[in-house]
TrEMBL record:
UniProt-recorded name of the protein: N-acetyltransferase domain-containing protein
Coiled coil: none
Domain of life: Bacteria
Domain N-acetyltransferase: 26-179
InterPro entries assigned: Acyl_CoA_acyltransferase, GNAT_dom
Signal peptide per UniProt: none
Gene Ontology terms, MF aspect: acyltransferase activity, transferring groups other than amino-acyl groups
Amino acid sequence: MPSVIRLCGVNEAMVDKNFAFRSERLSYRGITKEDAEIIVGWRSDPDNYKTFFNRRPITLEEHLAWFTNYLDDMTRYDFMVIDETGAPIGTVGLSGISTDACEISYMIGAKTARGKGYAKEAVRAATQLAFSEFGVRYVDARILPGNHASEKVVEGCGYAEVEHVFRIERADDAGGGCF
């Protein structure tokens, strides 16, 4: 069974699919149809998809069909992660967004960008976005068993595991703090 990682949130605003934001070293913009080829390349790399729940390469046609549905799904927002040079290096997304919770997903697809702390920075930034813009109380991250690198990323962002759920209590609920 995959681990579910949970954090808490605070607010009730929403953003559109073209929302852009920044973190210390990275910038983020909504994914576009023009990003399809690079995303398919990353998603079809065995080093990447071995950590996905859908453990197989995808085709351009599959991605474009998914993207068409994505545009109509107002409970999901995916962002291209851009490094300091302006190069796309991965994606981070929030899905299943409700007033209470959402799920985060992320991938540093560019192999040259791995091991530099970008995944942690992207997860932290998207988690803060979920709290401040979407007003969720919890952010879950499902991680396949054995994906220790991903567990390390979310734990480094403040997620903690409790019975297969990584969770942090919202400040007004437990006297602690999210960030």
